[in-house]
Amino acid sequence: LGVSDDAICKWTRAGKPVGKPFDIDGGFVYTIAVSPDGLMAAGAYGDGRVRLWNIKEGSLVGPPWEGNINDRVHCLDWSPNGAEVAGGSEDGTIRRWNMGTGRQIGSPIKKSDQWIWTIKYSPQCDKFASGGNDDIIRVWSKDGKLLIEIKGYDNTVTSLCWSKDGEYIFSASADHTIRKWQSIDGKELVVIRGHSNPVTSLCLSPDESHLVSASDDYSVRIWDLET
Asked: What keywords tag this UniProt record (predicted)?
C-alpha cells in the first residue's frame, strides 16, 4: 500500500496498480500501518483521526476511531498479535486503540510536547517504544506505564525496531547515526556511522544478521551486525 494524491493505492511488487485507489474521506492520508495478517490497514488522516480499511475491498470499516487528537497523527504501529494499534502525534500524545472496537485503550499517554516520529511494539507485545523530537527513546509497558527513558541522542529519533527476543532496540536519528541499546536498562551497545544525512527508516532482517537503513542522503544501506 502507498499514499498518493490524497488516496490509498495498492500496488504489485513490480509497481503496477491493483484496482482503484481507495475512496478516502477526511483529507490527506499521512501514514498507514498494515495489520499482521495483511487484511486491514489503519490510516492517519489530515483531520487528526484514524480510520480502518479493508484492503481487499478497499472500503472503510466502521466510523473513525475515537480520540480527541489535537494534532496530526505522525506515526502508527500495529501490535504483532493484531489486537491493537498505537499512534503518536505532533502534540506528543500517544494513543492506543482496540482493533475490534476502535475504542481507546486506557488514557492518552503524554510525557512531552514534542512530535513523536516513531512508535514500535515489541515482538512479545508486552512493551512498546517511542521516539521523537525531544531526542529520547521511551519504553512503555503494555499498560502504558513508563519503564525507561533512553538518552544519548542530541537530535530527533526517527525510527525504531526491536530484536525478536525483545532484548534490544535499534534506533535511527537525524544525527545521521544508528544505535543499538539494551531494552532493559538503556545501555548503548553499538553506534553505526556512515550516512551523511538524517536516517529516516530501519528494518531488521528476518534472521537478524543485517540491518537495513534509509536516509535523506538518498541511499539505502545494508549493515552486517556482526561487524
From this structure: Repeat, WD repeat
Torsions phi, psi for 149 (to 5 deg):
-110, 125
Amino acid at 179: R
| Gap between the Cα atoms of 61 and 11, Å rounded | 21
Beta strands across the sheet bearing 178-182: 157-162, 168-173, 178-182, 188-192
- Please give the biggest Cα pair distance in the chain: 49
Q: Is 163 left (phi over 0), alpha (psi -120 to 50) or beta?
A: beta
- Taking the C-alpha atoms of residue 143 and residue 56, their distance in angstroms, rounded to an integer, is 32
Give pLDDT tens digits for 74-130.
Answer: 899 999 999 999 999 988 999 999 988 888 998 899 998 999 999 999 999 999 999
Cell of 99: 482493533
- Cell numbers at residue 225, please? 551486525
Per-domain residue ranges of the chain: 2-159
| Full-model pTM | 0.90
Judge: domain 2-159, CATH 3.50.50.60.
Answer: no
